[in-house]
Amino acid sequence: RKEVEQDPGPFNVPEGATVAFNCTYSNSASQSFFWYRQDCRKEPKLLMSVYSSGNEDGRFTAQLNRASQYISLLIRDSKLSDSATYLCVVRNTDKLIFGTGTRLQVFP
Amino acid sequence: EPEVTQTPSHQVTQMGQEVILRCVPISNHLYFYWYRQILGQKVEFLVSFYNNEISEKSEIFDDQFSVERPDGSNFTLKIRSTKLEDSAMYFCASKKRDPPLSGNTIYFGEGSWLTVV
């Protein structure tokens, strides 16, 4: 089983749509959880940390379910500039474990 | 905003040659990392470095790889004898502190794209 598993997509959505990404992780001892964004051939950039209580940053909402080892990201009111690959990431000891990413394409 | 800088941005090298990738982490950061991403694949951890020694390394980080912090600012990744499968984007990263302290966000450099021919 992959350490971090994501649907690769692509998700093609119109501007203004709401889109949700899911992720599962295999190591129950994972300590921290994140969503990163990666544009083509660029470095990963932290979008937001994910907490068990759920957290929101503008149009982005992240949820963590430790019992199910499941992480989600909801993007509301999609913009063209949201087009990117969204990486689900967990921290084990001092290393980040990345999923393969979910590709989002927002069209006009 | 302070950033992690990497050089070169792109290097082409012949199989069997040695390569050194350079990184300047953010100046007050104490923890340093190398990750790599083969084209079309996920980002993979290579090595972490703290207090002038390797704190953790992955199976990928074999004897062909080494890291060094030769002075107070640079952090280098050396690949001794490159193979075709070493072709990838190599990301340097750094952070200030360990969780749960604040300042534990890991910042990535823009990457060095290595092509082995």
Explain this structure.
The complex is a heterodimer of chains A (108) and B (117). The mean pLDDT of chain A is 94. Helix content of chain A is 0%, strand content 56%. Chain A has strands at 4-6, 11-14, 19-25, 32-38, 45-49, 55-57, 60-65, 70-75, 84-92, 95-98, 102-107. Chain A contains no helices and 11 strands. Chain A has 108 residues and is mostly beta strands. In chain B, the strands form 2 sheets. In chain B, strands 2, 4, 5, 6, 9, 10 and 11 form a 7-stranded mixed sheet that branches. A 4-stranded antiparallel sheet of chain B has the order 1-3-8-7, with no helix packed on it. With 117 residues, chain B is mainly β. The mean pLDDT of chain B is 93. Chain B contains no helices and 11 strands. The termini of chain B are far apart. Chain B is 0% helix and 49% strand. Chain B has strands at residues 5-7, 10-13, 19-24, 31-37, 43-50, 53-57, 65-68, 75-79, 88-95, 107-108, 112-116. Chains A and B meet through strand 10 of A and strand 4 and strand 5 of B.
Short description:
The complex is a heterodimer of chains A (108) and B (117). Chain A is 0% helix and 56% strand.
Based on the model shown, name its key terms.
heterodimer, A: 108 residues, mainly beta, 6-stranded mixed sheet, 5-stranded antiparallel sheet, 11 strands, B: 117 residues, 7-stranded mixed sheet, 4-stranded antiparallel sheet, 0% helix, globular
